[in-house]
Amino acid sequence: MNWIKKTFGNPFKIYLFGIILFLGFCVIGIPLLSIGHSGGEQVPITLIAYALNYFIYGLFFISILTSILFWDWFKKYWYINFTIFILTGVLIVPSLVSEIYDDRQPDLTVKYPRPVSKAVFLKDSLNAELAIDCLIVLNNRLYGGTDVSYGVLDTIIYSPSGNQIFIIYAKKFEPNDLGNDLDPAYFSANKRGKNNEWELEPGLTKAQLSGSYQNIKELKEDVRKFYFNEYKFKPSDSLEENYFWKTKNDL
């Protein structure tokens, strides 16, 4: 650590060095890295977001490091590091807590027995696959192209009483240069029609997983993490705000 003290001499130069690195990357690095990408203005914005994130983390750790290495300076100008530590910490800590929370391994144990027979489940699965295919065909016609190649049924979740259903599937878009052409999509229903088939509706009223993925395995892992960590499914949790199923008062 002595080489840091010998190289910079005081914390002000370390902060200045960090600021110059950040601005240099924004002015020179981002334009160079954006050359040849087909993402248009999205690539520079994404790079700036990453750079700003690292810059904030850098200031946070510099405030800690310089307080230790330059103790005599810190005793005199403690309010500088303290202010930077608090301001950057306010930005960093919530995002870290959220990231750790979202990255928990989901509890995939069976919450209750499946409320329908195997025959009904297989029929519901076939109808769900048909609904996915029909929706894709309809969307491609409406938008004048074949933007979505196909859909993949992922998970079917029934409410404890079997009177509601939530179906997760993935839409496979035509390949793009970024390789993130898989999107999670959803069906839900709270009643069956005259042929005992679910009257499925795209989307969900509760918080949804969004984003694009490069492979189906990664998408499935995130889908399970999101829904099984975000919501409760057991009937005993029906009074909780994050209870997944609609209650009688909601219908």
Structure in words:
This protein is an alpha+beta fold and 251 residues long. The chain has helices at residues 2-8, 11-34, 42-69, 71-76, 78-102, 118-142, 216-230; strands spanning 148-158, 165-173, 182-189, 201-202. Strands 1-2-3-4 form a four-stranded antiparallel β-sheet. Strand 2 (165-173) and strand 3 form a beta hairpin. Helix 2 packs antiparallel against helix 3 (42-69) and helix 3 packs across helix 5 (78-102). The mean pLDDT is 85.
Please write out the topology.
Layout: H1 2-8, H2 11-34, H3 42-69, H4 71-76, H5 78-102, H6 118-142, E1 148-158, E2 165-173, E3 182-189, E4 201-202, H7 216-230
Antiparallel strand pairs: 1-2, 2-3, 3-4
Helix pairs in contact: 2-3, 3-5
Q: Can you summarize this structure?
A:
By secondary structure, the chain is an alpha+beta fold.
Features:
251 residues; alpha+beta; 52% helix
Return the structural class. Answer: alpha+beta
The shape, in one word, is elongated
Radius of gyration: 26 Å
**Distance N terminus to C terminus?**
64 Å
Q: Quick one: biggest sheet?
A: 4 strands, antiparallel
Number of strands: 4
User: What is the percent of helical residues?
Assistant: 40-55%
Overall pLDDT score:
85
**Percent range for β-strand residues:** 5-15%
Strand sequence of the main sheet, in spatial order? 1-2-3-4
Which parts are unreliable, with pLDDT below 50 for 5 consecutive residues or more? none
Q: How do the helices and strands follow one another from N- to C-terminus?
A: HHHHHHEEEEH
The total count of helices amounts to 7
